[in-house]
Structures are given as structure tokens and as C-alpha cells.
Specification:
The protein has no helices and 11 strands. A hairpin with a 4-residue loop joins strand 7 (68-73) and strand 8 (78-83). Strands 2, 4, 5, 6, 9, 10 and 11 form a 7-stranded mixed beta sheet that branches. It is globular and about 40 Å long. The model has no long low-confidence stretch (mean pLDDT 95). By secondary structure, the chain is mainly β.
């Protein structure tokens, strides 16, 4: 059974930090490109960050550049999203997604999705 599980969400004050993890079970993330997405109530889902299968390419949406960092931990079969200097507008449900890939670049379409973890930034 192939599954992605996000963890690390929670309630944090503006300016605070959270570290989200995306763990895979039933398959290895080594040959998969990974994306992090978020969806706030009443808004469309948006791509936040992505990392290529080898980790050589990372991309970020403009609103999180300089604040979020995506990284791979192949030993733990996880991909992490370090989120610093959080803002209320970062409040959303965060999802990770994976797709098998040989590319050096991020993927555009994903096959596997997690159930999401809630991030709330509020004082």
C-alpha cells in the first residue's frame, strides 16, 4: 500500500517556525520528485515548493522564497519543509505529493498525495 503521510503542522505565532515532514510508506522516495502544496479555506490549492528526484533542483513560490527550505532525507525516506518567519497568510492545509521521476527538474504532475497537515499562524 503506497502512502504519503505529512506531519509537523500546528499552531504557531507570526514569526515562528515549523518543520513539516512527508514520509513515504510502501515505496522509496529516492526516485521520486516531491512537491509541497497548500490550500487555505476558500482558495485554490497552490504549489509551495518542489524538489527533484536527486535533489539538484528546488523551486519555491515567490511568497515563501527566503523563508521556506525543502530538503530530502533519503535515509529516513522523508522530504522536509522548513518554514521560518511564518505569516498569517501561510495558514493552510499543507500537502505533499510524489511522482516517479528520472528528471533533474521538479515535476508538474503528481501521482501520490498525502492527507495533509494543518498549519495555523496566529497570535
Amino acid at each position: 500500500h503506497l502512502q504519503l503521510v505529512e506531519s509537523g503542522g500546528g499552531l504557531v505565532q507570526p514569526g515562528g517556525s515549523l518543520r513539516l515532514s512527508c514520509a513515504a510508506s510502501g515505496f522509496s522516495l529516492d526516485n521520486h520528485a516531491i512537491g509541497w502544496f497548500r490550500q487555505a479555506p476558500g482558495k485554490e490549492r497552490e504549489g509551495v515548493s518542489c524538489i527533484s528526484q536527486g535533489g539538484s533542483t528546488t523551486n519555491y513560490t515567490d511568497s515563501v522564497k527566503g523563508r521556506f527550505t525543502i530538503s530530502r532525507d533519503n535515509a529516513k525516506n522523508t522530504v522536509n519543509l522548513q518554514m521560518n518567519s511564518l505569516k498569517p497568510e501561510d495558514t493552510a492545509t499543507y500537502y505533499c505529493a510524489a511522482v516517479f521521476s528520472f528528471s533533474y527538474y521538479c515535476a508538474r504532475d503528481y501521482d501520490y498525495w498525502g492527507q495533509g497537515t494543518q498549519v495555523t499562524v496566529s497570535s
